[in-house]
Amino acid sequence: MHLEILSPENKIFEGEVNSVIFPGSNGKFQILNNHAPLISFLNKGEIIYDKNNKTEKLLISGGVVEIIKNKVSALIEVIPS
Fold first, then answer.
1. Residue 68: which CATH number?
2. What's the pLDDT tens digit per position in 18-34?
């Protein structure tokens, strides 16, 4: 599936992934290929995605995610490092 992670400042990631885990308002949830359409708010936590069998993590302070037809779009606020 195609994942796109955007912040107000720039595009953080765009590419094909096997799975992604989001910090939802009611706890963590995982998105796999062919997931049903969904829109959800995101809480503070980590976005964890599997790209080419390598796990990547991104710490966020919140945001929103939309899933439609194997396209996952997340608009997030990144926690400054």
1. 2.60.15.10
2. 999 999 988 999 999 99
